[in-house]
């Protein structure tokens, strides 16, 4: 027979008194310690964090600012394989170039360069973004040869192939 003072496996064992309060106090102290540690490690308290070490600063050249935009007349250019391109270009002039009227700009060399840059190219070459971008770069280089730093940007405002 089972002793009445000894709990059996099916009966729950009563918790000891006084232990619960001690666990709450310990948990609270641990929480305060963790928060305080995080505060100081995170740089919110104590001494100021050391500045990051200086690295070699390489200054990038400043992008030139566009002052005036000159629109060139659209031109038809013969492409390879009997196709053609109708292209219109706008030129972004440096802010240092002062024109009373954009029609004062001598555009004949720029128009000639547009024709020579695109003549004889294939439609496949000009249909890709990389192909158009390469031709824009080539056009910018040629314009820099004639105009110097007067032209800072080239924009395609019409680009139709057939």
Please outline the helices and strands:
Blueprint: H1 19-41, E1 66-71, E2 75-78, E3 84-94, H2 108-118, H3 123-127, H4 129-147, E4 151-161
Antiparallel strand pairs: 1-3, 2-3, 3-4
Protein model, in words:
Helix content is 36%, strand content 20%. The chain has helices spanning 19-41, 108-118, 123-127, 129-147, and strands at 66-71, 75-78, 84-94, 151-161. Strands 1, 2, 3 and 4 form a four-stranded antiparallel β-sheet that branches. The chain is elongated.
Question: What's the short version?
Answer:
This protein is of the alpha+beta class.
Q: How far is the first residue's CA from the last residue's CA?
A: 106 Å
Beta-strand portion reads 15-25%
CATH superfamily of the domain at 66-161: Band 7 domain
Strand tally is 4
Count up the helices. Answer: 4
SSE pattern: HEEEHHHE
From the coordinates shown, what is the CATH architecture of the domain at 66-161?
2-Layer Sandwich
Mean pLDDT: 79
> Spans with pLDDT under 50 lasting ≥5 residues?
none
Shape: elongated
* Biggest sheet character: 4 strands, antiparallel
- Named CATH topology of the domain at 66-161: Tetrahydropterin Synthase, Chain A
Helix content: 25-40%
**Any idea of the CATH class of the domain at 66-161?**
Alpha Beta
Radius of gyration: 38 Å
Helix-strand makeup class: alpha+beta
């Amino acid at each position: 027979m089972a002793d009445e003072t000894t709990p059996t496996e099916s009966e729950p064992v009563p918790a000891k008194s006084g232990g619960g309060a001690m666990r709450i106090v310990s948990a609270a102290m641990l929480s305060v310690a963790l928060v305080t540690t995080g505060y100081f490690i995170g740089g919110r308290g104590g001494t100021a964090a050391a500045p990051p070490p200086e690295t070699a600063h390489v200054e990038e050249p400043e992008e030139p600012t566009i002052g005036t935009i000159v629109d060139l007349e659209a031109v038809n250019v013969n492409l390879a394989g009997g196709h053609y391109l109708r292209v219109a270009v706008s030129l972004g002039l440096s802010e240092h170039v002062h024109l009373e009227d954009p029609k004062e700009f001598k555009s004949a060399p720029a128009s000639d360069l547009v024709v020579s840059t695109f003549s004889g190219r294939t439609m496949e070459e000009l249909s890709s973004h990389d192909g158009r971008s390469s031709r824009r770069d080539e056009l910018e280089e040629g314009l820099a040869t004639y105009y110097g730093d007067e032209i800072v940007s080239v924009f395609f405002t019409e680009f139709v192939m057939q």
